[in-house]
Design brief:
By secondary structure, the chain is α/β, with parallel strands linked by helices. Helices cover 40% and strands 16% of the residues. Strands 1, 2, 3, 4, 5, 8, 9, 10, 11 and 12 form a ten-stranded mixed β-sheet that branches. A three-stranded antiparallel β-sheet has the order 13-14-15. Strands 6-7 form a two-stranded antiparallel ribbon. Helix 3 packs parallel to helix 4. It is globular, with a radius of gyration of 26 Å.
Length: 425
């Protein structure tokens, strides 16, 4: 008889035998860039997601840099649409301008450029239209032209999402001819005609003006056809494959990962994101637990990378989980021996959320630094200035005046622990 629970007996044991991991390096964050000035427009159906104009785009890039995200997927929203989607391949279009600006600010950031006509056509379809029919072969040169335009601007990866037949071949040939032999193609090979795209169409202003996209995007019922689409794109020159949506199509990813020796990318789409956000906002679920379970599920299904609107949150959670706390743990254990509650109210608050309290040691500018070297922004600017001596002199005076009036701000420090030990002795 096997007792499999032996390998679940502690956090360290579970960490050691864990089969799949979610890494910040594997996350790709989608962004929306729009024409205009001074625009930061929230997408109502996607809480936390915004459309940015170029003059405010650095706000989003700074968030991405701070989170440690290394790759973005960029979508453009033009101020002009026409029948042939000319804004998609104009060298002064919104996406090339955004790519050039981002590369100036953050050269190392990997930029993946989505290639499609839907945001740029007046009819909202992903290809040219004649008599109500979406034209395949006539659309290919425009997709190829868009790809070259983005590569010239500095895009690191080209990602065609249109679902026209033979578009990978057309794009590969155009890139090679233009000298971009080493620019990879990340193809939306298994892209289904899904109900999960609704919020994205609000964000990218890309809903079709008539009909639907079922004549070129895939039938959700067809798994073998998806594998055929993937195989054809690989033969045409795709370097990476996207499965979209993700959660309802894990079987596609698993089969593709076992059949083809190529990186599989899961696109955790807008509807999947919006459902989690809505449920979390209503208090029905634990957002972090659900998101992380979804992420590791996608990895287990075979995804090597994940495109997700949760990327910034996931990165934040991962950093917190890795936070060093060895010294703080030692001080906390010492403090509990002599002081009820483990020093003071902030310590007790930390206990309520199952975290080791942080013992502050020094300060620098607007930052406070704990005993383990972790840095924090002293956004409250309360106890920090009084104990650690930073901040403006007037702030320090106000803090000290409050202390003299009997108000303390509960900063756990090593000196506080030592004092308690001396009093006890």
């Amino acid at each position: 008889m096997e007792r499999t629970r032996r390998l679940r007996t502690s956090n360290y044991m579970r960490d050691m035998v864990r089969e799949n991991h979610v890494r910040i390096d594997e996350l790709i964050y989608p962004i929306f860039v729009t024409e205009g000035e001074n625009i930061k427009h929230s997408v109502e159906s996607m809480p936390g997601i915004y459309q940015y104009s170029l003059d405010r785009l650095s706000e989003e890039i700074n968030r991405i840099k701070e989170a440690g995200i290394k790759a973005i997927l960029i979508f453009g929203i033009p101020d002009h649409k026409d029948e042939v989607g000319s804004g998609a391949y104009a060298e002064d279009g919104i996406v090339p301008k955004a790519i050039r600006q981002i590369k100036k600010e953050y050269e190392e950031l990997l930029i993946i450029a989505d290639v499609c006509l839907c945001e740029y056509t007046s009819h909202g379809h992903c290809g040219l239209v004649k008599d109500g029919v979406i034209l395949n072969d006539e659309t290919l040169p425009l997709l190829a032209k868009s790809s070259v335009s983005y590569a010239k601007a500095g895009a690191d990866i080209i990602a065609p999402s249109d679902m026209m037949d033979l578009r990978v071949k057309a794009i590969r040939e155009a890139l090679d001819e233009a000298g971009f032999v080493y620019t990879p193609i990340m193809s939306y090979s298994a892209k289904f005609a899904s109900g999960y795209y609704g919020p994205f169409r609000d964000a990218a202003h890309s809903a079709p003006g008539f009909g639907d996209r079922k004549t070129y995007q895939m039938d959700p019922a067809n798994g073998q056809e998806a594998l055929r689409e993937i195989g054809e794109d690989i033969e045409e020159g795709a370097d990476l494959i996207i499965a979209k949506p993700a959660l309802a199509y894990m079987d596609i990813m698993k089969e593709a990962s076992m059949k083809y020796n190529i990186p599989i990318v899961a696109y955790n789409v807008s509807g999947e994101y919006a459902m989690v956000k809505a449920a979390a906002a209503n208090g029905w679920i634990d957002e972090k637990k659900i998101v992380m379970e979804n992420m590791v599920g996608l990895k287990r299904a075979g995804a090597k990378m994940i495109i997700t609107y949760h990327a910034l949150d996931v990165a934040k959670w991962k950093r917190k989980d890795k936070m060093k706390d060895t010294r703080s743990k030692e001080l906390y254990e010492r403090a509990k021996v002599h002081i009820p509650g483990g020093v003071n109210s902030p310590v007790r608050a930390f206990r309520a959320v199952n975290r080791t309290p942080r013992f502050m040691e020094s300060a620098k500018g607007d930052r406070i630094i704990d005993a383990d070297g972790n840095e924090y922004i002293d956004y409250v600017c309360s106890w920090g200035p009084g104990i650690l001596g930073h901040a403006h002199p007037q702030v320090i005076k106000k803090v000290m005046d409050s202390c003299e009036n009997g108000l303390t701000f509960g900063a756990p420090t090593e000196k506080e622990v030592i004092l308690a030990e001396l009093i006890s002795e």
